[in-house]
């Protein structure tokens, strides 16, 4: 009836000003698309923060991208050098998708 | 004068926000509304400055003030950098990032000062808005240069993000509205005056309420601030503000405009520069520069700095 | 009088919102804008009340009205609780939570009443804003006490969330703006008056448009409302409003202020109290208390209650 | 006249937004604020139209203009559809969807035209707001009919989404505010006039700033636009606007109202119609219709169209 | 102490105007609930977009629903005919939930 | 080149007023951080709702936390007594992370 295949669900939490750089890397490894989700607030070892649009530098965004295993690996490779300096939080999970040829 | 300042609703709303955040109240201003107010304030201040310059023309004072502003923005980061590395014990990267903030300016501090001073019959010249816009970016260049002199390989992120710096939202909006004000002139401004002029002070109240909340929350939540950095976050506006006021007086500005130049020098950016630093120096810790500029220097200037440099300008003027 | 009320744009925008939601229109007001308007309304009402009290001083009437307001907020939940458990068939926990809402007050109902009454030459005294602020929290204490008398072990969540209740956003803002108004006085208020006074009614229109949408959507989407609860959501404002108006008249307030006290008593909270109940009584069902206070009592008061208690206050005054 | 238009702050803010987006500045207006402004503009224009009709009454001109508007909205999509399929090489589904946009209207184009024309002593009649509301939906019906004549089985999604079309937010708000204005009349409108009238032009400036950003970004980001479609996105407003202006003159409207009818005909919807098309014709590509109506036709009308049809109406009037 | 069971986490990226239609299908297959998350911006083969509330037609939303395997399959079946015309992005992952009898 | 390890992705849907209580429990079990995502609207057995900021009591938030297996279990233990009274929706999935020592 319909066919599902396994793909990677990549979730990257990043400071909003740096998001365009991550998106450039997503394009570089030829992942077909991405979506940005707004993060309201959070906390970690560097303290707590709330999103405020006044000084956008403290805002954070989640970048969501669905990709094949190979492309996900390529992306991780691209991101490796900046993982620390950008303080990225990067997680990769397995999901089933339909119309998998698109990813 | 400080009493006048402290009974102005504009300042009292800032205090209310600050106190509410210290009491850990759940009071918050929706961020979209806060950003809308900051867009409104920048458009209004740009427009009004442009309209004033349209009628006064480009005077020698304007040119002198512009040159002074540019010089301050380029040079003040050197003082800040020296103090931040020596006394503040910051790494070169962090010190360069912080120094850029103190060379640049805070639009809201300027706007608040303009309102308070105008309310006391000491309104700065319209062209000071142009000076404000000119002072936003040069400090970024100096700060980056200072940070990088001692930096290790910068992971290939580096390079000054020229495009982002020159087209950043607040520069575009201030300069754009300034030009619109110049083109439209007094007559063209009349139909939009009810929104951009009459309502201005009230909006500033609500915006400073939010700034009080944001400044205090940043102060509470920060884990990166040492006593030395707190000291510098108060010393730097004092030093920079005194230099700015003196320079303004020296080049012959009226007392009000000299005070405004002092306040611009004393103020620290928390919009344009943090965004640029996050891009150009991702290794620098945003916890440090935001806590200093937004958590300490901004409230200090709003509550004490404005009155202080106004008094200084009148004393030496 | 009800005809005057029903042709006022303020009320008509509420009706428009209500009807649009009943027709399942996709009309929505962005939540950030709605919250911004509620912040504006609270700041404006607080400021104006403070300015008025600054010029009238603290009068015996003010003190009498304050005591009456406190008493109403503490005591009205007892009546509500009895009716909600007996007639309404609610559990003690749900009844206590709902009772707290009816003892407390709705800022928007008060603001709308003040505008409508003032438009009819029946403006309540400035100090009623202070009474409004005082009435927000006592009912929470009574409601929690009633709810817990019969409660099983509360899972260790319990305890009155004193801190959240006392620093809740609407109390901070109302009280803060009231104090700012008192400090600034008439002269200090003048420069911010264009925003906080001239624009007030127009903003109230747009805010009530949103409240109409929210009230009707809550009514439609609720699955927890029985005929008995609908009856009580209309009976309680009638009972509480009559008590409040009578008490106001009895302690010697002018008719307009007595009507305002009646409307405060009749109104039910849907901001401060729900937030407190969610924390202190998470087991209580928010579907019940929000549907009653926001879905039924609020529209009832806006459309009928205001005129009703104004007429009552004039009749017995 | 085009010079007058191009030095108006309203238009200059649009240009500022457009240029900022072309320069890839990070300037953005929070979407909640933009939507709030569009709600404000629709409520204000509806109210003012209603108040005017309340005092002028229902005149033969009003009825003639209403009939003309309905006819244009129903019939203009046929011309558009023919050009879009023949010259534009679009599929029937895409062409039908685009045609519906060009038959319907853009509220902001109308509002801007009204401000610009009124500023030049050429204010259209109050009832043109009613015509605006009437013209929003008929084109949707024609567009869907044209699209479906040639459509393959529509996956069972189909059917005209009558309910959504008739209760869509902008129709509800415009018509609702119009009725409120008629009920309230001049006296009832007075207390809310400061917000809805005095501030109007200023809000329009900020809103057009955002529209400039949105229009240019859509233009840049689109990948669906061919040279032929760009040509049509300029030709269609010229054709439709000329027909509308001529028809308005023919049925005896004053020059200002005839120009307004021309501008309504020339304008293309980018709020109500896209939402309806997404539902009724999900297979149609939103990239095409939004880029044409919002990215090209809207800026064209704001900058050239308004002056053009005003000149035409005066020439043939 | 507490029991976890495996359920499906369904994530559907959809144009906001079409969300009510997807929700209707979620109800049709008797899934117990859903939640909507706002998407700020994104990019794919059709170009990039930012959310703007002015013309809501370009907005996108993520619909999140937790459901049993059976119901998730039923939902995919319901969605299959519109996957292409609605340009849906549909992913299904495994998650552990407590109080699993609710789903 | 780079190392990924498996961690738990915990997603908790909670009424916004109760979020601080959940965050306190996250801190109590020593999870290194959390992020809050705004939920726009939803529906379940108790009816449908939209977020409105006017009465914040009806707002919902997703709390996202990445944690080790042990800490995730500890959190579930902490949350167990309030799962019902707070009407929490709690899901736990597996994800790969880089720099796993941080969690
Ligand atoms: N691989 C992906 N991962 C995440 N989001 C995607 C992906 N592909 C597409 N999208 C989203 O879906 C939208 C439409 O995609 P498309 O139809 O490819 O233009 C994009 O703008 C993104 O928001
Ligand atoms: N199966 C589900 N999947 C996703 N979200 C859900 C689910 N069930 C409930 N929710 C969310 O939790 C809220 C409360 O659910 P309930 O307690 O069932 O009314 C709903 O309004 C949804 O936002
Ligand atoms: N374990 C975690 N789970 C979810 N979000 C996290 C986690 N750790 C950090 N974050 C997010 O990342 C931000 C920066 O983390 P940190 O660098 O640890 O201060 C935090 O404020 C959170 O928003
Ligand atoms: Na400075
Ligand atoms: Na009450
Ligand atoms: Na048209």
What does this structure look like?
The complex is a heterohexamer, with 3 copies of chain A (103 residues) and 3 copies of chain B (317 residues). Chain A is an alpha+beta fold. Chain A has 2 helices and 6 strands, in the order E-H-E-E-E-E-H-E. In chain A, a hairpin with a 2-residue loop joins strand 3 and strand 4 (47-50). The longest helix of chain A has 11 residues, at 69-79. The model of chain A has no long low-confidence stretch (mean pLDDT 90). Chain B has helices spanning 2-6, 9-22, 31-56, 60-86, 92-103, 107-119, 128-135, 138-149, 162-166, 169-189, 193-198, 200-221, 227-250, 255-266, 272-280, 286-316. Chain B has 16 helices and no strands. With 317 residues, chain B is mainly α. The chains are: A alpha+beta (103), B mainly alpha (317). The interface between C and F is medium-sized, with 31 and 21 residues. Strand 2 (34-39) of chain A pairs antiparallel with strand 3 (41-44) of chain E, so a sheet runs across the interface. The structure holds adenosine monophosphate (3 copies) and sodium ion (3 copies).
List keywords for this structure.
heterohexamer, A: four-stranded antiparallel beta sheet, two-stranded antiparallel ribbon, B: mainly alpha, Na+/H+ antiporter like fold, 78% helix, globular, binds adenosine monophosphate, binds sodium ion
Rg for CA atoms of chain A: 15 Å
- Approximately what portion of the residues of chain B adopt beta-strand conformation? under 5%
Structural class by SSE content of chain A:
alpha+beta
Largest sheet of chain B: none
What is the count of distinct domains of chain B? Answer: 1
Order of helices and strands of chain A: EHEEEEHE
Alpha-carbon distance between the termini of chain B?
17 Å
Q: Percent of residues of chain A in beta strands?
A: 35-45%
How many helical elements of chain A? 2
Helix content of chain B: over 70%
Largest interface: B-C, 30 and 33 residues
| Number of distinct beta strands of chain B | 0
- CATH C-level label of chain B: Mainly Alpha
Please identify the oligomeric state: heterohexamer
**Overall mean pLDDT score of chain A?**
90
Please state the structural category of chain B: mainly alpha
